[in-house]
Write a structure and sequence with these properties.
The chain has helices at residues 87-91, 178-186, 267-270, 294-318, and strands at residues 14-19, 29-35, 42-48, 53-60, 67-68, 80-81, 106-110, 117-130, 141-151, 166-169, 191-195, 210-214, 222-223, 226-227, 233-240, 249-251, 255-258, 261-262, 281-283, 290-292, 326-327, 336-338, 357-360, 365-369, 373-377, 380-383, 385-387, 396-398, 413-416. By secondary structure, it is mainly beta. Strands 3-4-10-5-9-8 form a six-stranded mixed β-barrel.
Length: 421
Amino acid sequence: MASSIIRFLLVLIVSVSFSNAQLPTHPGIVFDLERDSSTLQYLVKINQGTPQREVKLVVDFGGKLPWFACHGGYYSSSLRKVSCTSSQCSQAEKPVSTCADPKICSISLRNPVTRSVGKGELISDIVTVKSDPDNQQTPVPSSRNVAFGCAATSNILSGLDKASKGVAGLGRSSALSLASQFAVGFQYPNIFAVDLHDSVRDEKVLETTGKIYFGGGPYIHYFWGISDLADRVLTYTPLLINPKSEEEYFVDVKSIKVHGETLPINNKLLSINKTTGIGGTKIDIRIPYTTLETSIYNAFIKAHTEWVDRLNIANAELMDFPNITMVAAVAPFTTCYDSSTIILRGPSVVNNVAPSVSFVFPTSVWNISFFDLVIAKEGVACVGFVDGGLNPMTSIVIGALLQQKPAIAKTLLQFFAMALF
């Protein structure tokens, strides 16, 4: 079967938008994304400085600000230090509350992979962008000053992709997040959207990269010569605030369905504890595979294997398809099958099979995909979800599951960040 798995880009026809606001009315700007095959991290490519250079930053939904290692080899004539007495400095996370040197804003920088904290300074430099080419206007180059964290040492880069110079923080409540700064600088709505079609060849621009948009759409891509996102319907669900993780994007998942079966889940796991911040569901594209708390994961796998059993019975009656055969697991997955025994079929063949996984929100349903398997190695297809342990901080982390061959459809996720201006 084709290697298609559940991730942000595989909803058929319907996009999902997470919102506390209204639709944008102005076209925004767009950057290329790329995904590294070894670290499985997504990087945004930003043109900054004078002379202009491309800097790659690892995308971090929970980061408070963009930062990079600018000591040792980085030169820009447009770089400026942010003063300790400035309003921007007051919005940063600082190791000290006093201004030892009023000309320097000393700040703390967080590595989202290692969770380590390093020291740095707040600086400002020019970022050059082009408006979204799909807004039916000529893309216009434009430059703005953007505040960055400047890491004091290169140690803070540990665990990040080797091609990256730092992190693009997109935290929802921070005035210094990349989304918030672009919104203020370019006078766009405080919105960003990710389209992770890194394995899909875009016939319009002959690229295989994804996109990250700031300020709203239009979100138009050409899939095998067809404008498949032009008329897409957006489905909305509110964002939740986790008092212990205000920068991260939590959503209100009420239940999960696997092939139409609602999983038996302890409702306490789906709620965010207002005191500890434990529980709930968040979206994080740094996590390659969606993780589920152990009891949820066990229920998920049970529902999936029962569906496979029903499918095998139906196959025996039809006498047209082989039995789906389980094989040895391939880490980090626990349930794997011989891919040669899995035959792609329409959803009406067996009991009008629904899309394999659905996240049910209070007023909407996100049907992820008609596929829930990933090719773990040649000849082996595994259920592409991971056991997150018995006591995780977050019960469900919806990750950017990766695919190894072109998908048959794409989905775009749009986020409305918290209003700050």
